[in-house]
Amino acid sequence: MSIVLSILSFLLGALAVPLPMLPAFIPRLGLLPLYRMRLLRGIVLSIAWLLAIVTWNATPGALSNLLFGALLFFTLAATTIEPQRVFVALDAPGHLPAEQALISDDVVVLGYEDSGLARAWLFDTLIPRHIVNDSLGDKPLLAGY
Length: 145
Hints:
This protein has 145 residues and is of the alpha+beta class. The chain is 50% helix and 18% strand. It has helices at 2-16, 22-25, 32-35, 37-58, 62-80, 83-86, 123-126; strands spanning 90-91, 109-114, 117-122, 131-136, 139-144. The strands form two sheets. A three-stranded mixed beta sheet has the order 1-4-5, with no helix packed on it. A two-stranded antiparallel ribbon has the order 2-3.
């Protein structure tokens, strides 16, 4: 029985690391799991640790110590690998008219134009972000590359 609990604990701990990618593999889940990711990871890791403690109390030994080490690794990996840290959006950036912007003609920008209104973002500003939440007139605008 303790081997089964050990395996289950290990699998739950391993599942907590790629948990944010779950909606990509099961689209019917929608985006709600991403909004509750910390709670979901906390529940999964808590159950994994609880099973590991039960296993250790039943049969302390090398297997239990190895399981604790693996769970510690999974817990650290799960708490440091978060999509919010990788893709940080540029929200509502300030804008200048093209005549007032002091940039040279060879600067690379990502731009959008619709009905005579335009927005442009310096590519150098977008490099660490990849996503821009902006507006064009009264319409919301999401740009990404």
